[in-house]
Design brief:
Blueprint: E1 9-14, H1 19-24, E2 27-29, H2 31-40, E3 45-49, H3 52-61, E4 66-68, H4 84-93, E5 97-102, H5 107-111, E6 115-117, H6 122-127, E7 133-137, H7 140-149, E8 154-157, H8 163-166, H9 170-179, E9 184-187, H10 193-196, E10 201-202, H11 205-214, E11 219-223, H12 228-235, E12 240-243, H13 258-265, H14 276-292
Helix pairs in contact: 2-3, 3-14, 11-12
Bound molecules: 1,3-dihydroxyacetonephosphate and iron/sulfur cluster (SF4).
Length: 294
């Protein structure tokens, strides 16, 4: 492979990657905004600074583009927390069922799904499905958060979760509140339900940032990966943000480095490929999300 010209590439980054990588990207966003940017781009190359499922989704939605992951072994721990057997069993057992899969999942799981959701569009997308019964995988916490807002639907949940968000406890929140009395709690819906119940706002990373920016409050406890504090502090330099615990970190997101990005531009990377049968089926579920989320 020859060198890749910088002007031929769109560099996308998630809010959880290291600050220096966010600073070097063309666009930083939540999972949904990043997928939309990938689709809207007219550049032939996408360098996706995030975990595997993010690059895979971009490749599936934009098969004509070359998509590179700077660190191909940076994986989301939740991406395989559901199985084909479980999905087939649910399809056989429950009538009028939609299999709704969180975007934090492998391409293989997406290919077995009716529709994909992200944390920022899940309530809207599921509310627009005609099916009464919803099998929500893999994230049980996000699933329960969505279900609480859609009492007209009947939900079945998978068993998966993000180990990093799911580790957030009421004790942790109590200690953070004691250390920063008066700070408003903002939480990602991957956190356990009892934590979300205490939050002033629950939403995606982009939702948390937008809420903090608009809020009249000056201090916030941030219940999501600490990389989000970079954009929060950049947009709101006069406000104070504290992670609910100092090690609220996704080790895989933190694997992405400027050096790894440079290697892609030096022509040392391998473009991402998704098995064509898997890609074709997963594309249907991802495109359905894009339609229903409008
Ligand atoms: P967002 O889509 O809210 O950015 O979340 C992605 C993620 O991986 C959360 O852990
Ligand atoms: Fe996956 Fe959790 Fe990391 Fe998000 S924070 S990418 S859900 S492991």
């Amino acid at each position: 492979m020859g060198r890749i010209r910088r002007e031929d590439a769109l560099v996308l980054a998630h809010y959880y990657v290291p600050d220096a990588v966010q600073a070097a990207a063309d666009f930083v966003g939540d999972s949904f905004a990043l997928a939309q940017k990938a689709v809207a781009s007219d550049k032939p190359v996408i360098v996706f600074c995030g975990v595997t499922f993010m690059g895979e989704s971009a490749k599936i939605l934009c098969p004509e583009k070359q998509v590179y992951l700077p660190v191909p072994d940076a994986h989301c721990a939740m991406a395989d927390m559901a199985s084909e057997e479980e999905i087939l069993h649910m399809r056989e057992s429950i009538e009028d069922l939609a299999v709704v899969t969180y975007v934090n999942s492998s391409a293989r799981l997406k290919a077995l799904s009716d529709v994909i959701v992200t944390s920022s569009n899940a309530v809207k997308v599921v509310s627009r499905l005609k099916e009464k019964n919803i099998y929500f995988i893999p994230d049980k916490n996000l699933g329960r958060y969505v279900a609480a807002q859609l009492p007209e639907k009947n939900f079945y949940f998978g068993w998966g979760c993000c180990p990093i968000h799911n580790a957030t406890s009421l004790n942790e929140i109590a200690a953070a509140k004691e250390a920063h009395p008066g700070a408003l709690l903002l939480a990602h819906p991957e956190c356990p339900g009892e934590v979300c119940a205490q939050a002033a706002y629950v939403g995606s990373t982009a939702g948390i940032i937008a809420y903090a920016q608009k809020s009249a409050e000056k201090e916030f406890l941030v219940g999501t990966e600490a990389g989000t504090l970079y954009e929060l502090s950049r947009r709101c330099p006069e406000k104070k943000f504290y992670p609910t615990r100092p090690d609220f970190l996704c080790a895989d997101m933190k694997k992405i480095t400027l050096e790894a990005i440079e290697r892609i531009f030096a022509g040392e990377g391998t473009p991402l490929e998704v098995e064509p049968v898997v890609a074709e089926k997963a594309a249907r579920a991802l495109k359905r999300m894009l339609e229903l989320a409008q």
